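Supplementary Data S3. Sequence and structure tokens for construct A.
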Amino acid sequence: MRRLAFTLVELLIVVVILGILAAVVIPQFSDAGTDTKLSSLGTNLATIRGQIELYKLQHNGAYPALATFANQMTQKTDADGTVNAGGKYGPYLQRVPNNPFSNTNDVTVDAPASNKAWYYNAATGEFRANDGGTTNGVAHASM
């Protein structure tokens, strides 16, 4: 006798196998967004910190001022840090990048909060995430 279709048991086995595969694969993709944000945060921090140090080297050991941080980092400056279109130094960044966890790019010395992006201390040059978050037990501010 010739079979023209699958039996119900065969179809159930295929459905169960597909369900098991989906249960294994889907959780791996759900963490991908968080991993991407964490990687982006680390890259942004490394880039900005490096550019702050370059600014310091070119400006006689002075860090950018907090009040004019964005302008000093994204425009040309003189040796004393004055923003000047004909300046000799910079720009160091095209723009201050967004913190991927808060989706903002403000630079403050305020306490960490979910709506803050970056903490910057003009006296020491310390630059870190200021969103108050943690990922996989690692505080963003400690990166």
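Construct B, processed identically:
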Amino acid sequence: MLKRNKLIVLSVMLAICVLSFKAYAQESPAVSKTVITSDSLVFDYGRSTCIFDGSVVVDDPRVKMECDKLYVFFDATNNVDSIVATGNVKVWQDDRRGVCEKAVYTETTGTIVMTGKPRLQSGNNLVRGDKIKIFVNSEKVISSPKARLVVFPGEIEKARKATKD
């Protein structure tokens, strides 16, 4: 049971990292292995939580992530309800990067909300705002308030092709 729950936790934690980039949602490469390291790990069955604390590093063939602390919350049926990454959150895949102080993935809504000076970047293109909300199952991103988009000529088509490959 613990091994099954660990696999579920690892899979979903990677999903929050990866799904913040639309390209990953369309890719389905074979996964060899995922390694998550941290200074400590607490799996609390009574509270249905898993907490990775200190120097958290997620290393997956499709995506990399670093943060100070990673929380995974389960519902009553042991399915992942939400995932929260806090402190110096950095996610990258190929030339796509996301940076913020806090990222919250909610399973029921399929959204990721990035706060704390969030920034999404693909190549030279950049999205900023006080809050960035990513709709995992669509091509929708909302940045507000103080939204800023920087687009370089030719980069949009290049990014669009990358998401289809």
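The longest helix spans residues 2-19. The helical segments are 2-19, 22-26, 155-164.
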